[in-house]
Structure formats: structure tokens, C-alpha cells
Write a structure and sequence with these properties.
Elements (H helix, E strand, L loop, with lengths): L1 E3 L6 H10 L5 E6 L9 E6 L1
Antiparallel strand pairs: 1-3, 2-3
């Protein structure tokens, strides 16, 4: 799953990653590579 949250102040990015961290349906998540959007994108792998 690709979550586009942008960079801005980082508040939304932090909130998204905190929500994904420890969520029972999320296997893992990662920051996008530079060509994928960098810190403005989070990729999550679901169980």
C-alpha cells in the first residue's frame, strides 16, 4: 500500500507511521526511495 502524505512539517508523516507501527494488520512499512517520493511517501506491507 502506498500512502502519500507529503513532507510539510512532518506531523502527518509522523502520525501515519505511528498508526502503522504495531498495527495488527501491518507486516512492515518503509520510507519511499528517492525515485518513489522520498519522505513524502510511506509504503506499508499488509499481512
Amino acid at each position: 500500500m502506498k500512502i502519500i502524505h507529503g513532507t510539510g512539517t512532518g506531523a502527518l508523516m509522523k502520525g501515519v507511521r505511528e498508526h502503522l507501527d504495531g498495527h495488527p494488520l501491518v507486516r512492515e512499512y518503509r520510507v519511499g526511495d528517492q525515485h518513489e517520493g522520498g519522505n513524502g511517501v510511506t509504503f506499508a506491507t499488509m499481512r
